[in-house]
Design a protein that fits this description.
It comes from Brassica carinata (Ethiopian mustard). This is F-box domain-containing protein. With 399 residues, this protein is mostly beta strands. It folds into 3 domains: 37 residues; 212 residues, no CATH class; 106 residues. The chain has 8 helices and 26 strands. The protein has a 5-stranded antiparallel beta sheet with strand order 4-5-6-7-26, with no helix packed on it.
């Protein structure tokens, strides 16, 4: 295979699942180097990898779930795994390029695929100190309300991007925004401060920032955006405006990976509308989807929890089904709905659900988590994405 043209070799390797790809590295030094050390391979493989999500409750929970699924919206093809953490509550604060930012009695960056972990000192962060008031806090409303102020990102488009990451915390005081920055070693304030005197809207609660082309974007209630470039550490105000036709309209802020644009999803009982940001000023309607979930049966609640331009995930619960809830996936390419998973999660529990793409790279100064004795709870999360064996576990969420 060494003599194959590189584009053809990549086409073959991109078709392998993670377990087979790991095994492939053991057969040939040249292929191992190509898979492990070439950033372009990681980017290409991740774009072809099977879509998956990792999630837990926004208030924190003693479990984390990993949910992959294929191209068809067929619940029979989905295999879900979960990590039970005992008494420790886990919060997922971010996901980027196969790495997760977690808080569980400490702040960690982990790569479940490579089994590498890095413990971070978050004592210098003003925001995180207010969110996590003491270790193992089981009922922290601040964590649910303000975790959306935390951004986590790295840029794999640069050759040295695998060597570092940044955590950006946005601090909102009326119409002024400041930014805490950490590269994993220390915390400091960015020199950039933004004051939006002509716009008095606030950041949208419980809406995670969206990472696009080296910049984190936070949505505000009026549709405008606060953007922060992680390389230059410069922030800017994007004065876009979104007018809600109905006050009860549900909103979701996301990235359309197919067209590489910021996206707003708005939903009513009749239709779900997809808007894309054109230029820096206008949210343009790109698509409308009939909300057949609401028309076919009555639901106690529903909410869009994920969107990437290919799939849209809606969490819902039918009336009269005790505590049983579920989620449905809309395939944007096939224009059809399908079931995804069933849960016993009540409406009062919000999910922090993140798109997960596998990457084999790891940051400097990380450690390999070998034994459960090192950190049993982290080891459980590492095994969510297991390349050595296939798990098949199903669950009922505590209510």
């Amino acid at each position: 295979m060494n003599s194959l043209p590189m584009p053809l070799l990549d086409k073959i390797l991109f078709r392998l699942d993670l377990k087979s790809l790991v095994m492939m590295q053991c057969t040939n030094r040249y292929i191992k180097s190509h898979i492990s050390d070439d950033p372009s391979f990681e980017i290409g493989y991740s774009s072809h990898a099977r879509l998956s999500y990792i999630y837990t409750f926004s208030k924190g929970a003693p479990f984390v779930f990993y949910q992959p699924f294929g191209s068809a919206c067929d619940s029979r093809s989905y295999v879900k795994t979960f990590a039970s953490l005992g008494q420790v509550h886990c919060y997922i604060l971010g996901s980027c390029c196969g790495h997760l930012l977690l808080y569980m009695s400490g702040l960690y960056v982990v790569n479940p695929l490579t089994k590498r972990v890095r413990l971070l000192d978050h004592s210098g962060s003003m925001l995180l100190a207010t969110i996590f008031n003491g270790p193992n806090n089981k009922a922290n409303n601040a964590a649910e309300d303000r975790s959306m102020c935390v951004g986590f990102a790295l840029d794999h488009s640069r050759a040295d991007a695998t060597k570092g990451f940044k955590i950006i915390c946005i601090l909102e005081i009326h119409t002024t925004y400041a930014f805490e920055v950490s590269d994993g070693t220390s915390w400091r304030f960015s020199e950039t401060i933004i004051t939006t005197t002509n716009s008095k809207s606030e950041l949208t609660k419980r809406m995670k920032p969206v990472y696009l082309e080296g910049t984190l974007h936070w949505l505000r209630n009026d549709g405008s955006i606060i953007a922060f470039n992680i390389e230059t550490e410069k922030a800017r105000f994007i004065p876009s405006v979104f007018h809600r036709p109905e006050p009860e309209m549900k909103l979701f802020f996301a990235l359309d990976v197919k067209i590489n644009r910021l996206t707003l999803i708005s939903g009513t009982k009749e239709t779900i509308s997809v808007y894309t940001l054109t230029g820096d000023t206008k949210w343009a309607l790109a698509r409308q989807i009939e909300n057949i979930l609401m028309t076919d049966s009555e639901f106690e609640y529903w909410n869009v929890v994920a969107y990437d331009g290919k799939y849209m995930v809606v969490k819902d619960k039918e009336k009269g089904r005790s505590t049983t809830g579920g989620a449905h996936v809309y395939n944007m390419e096939d224009n059809r709905w399908g079931a995804w998973w069933s849960t016993a999660c009540q409406a009062k529990y919000n999910l922090d659900l993140f798109r997960f793409t596998p990457f084999f790279s790891f940051f400097e100064h990380t450690e390999v988590l070998v034994e459960d004795s090192t950190n049993g709870d982290l080891a459980q999360i590492m095994r969510l994405i297991d390349t050595t064996k296939q798990k098949n576990k199903f669950f009922i969420c505590w209510a």
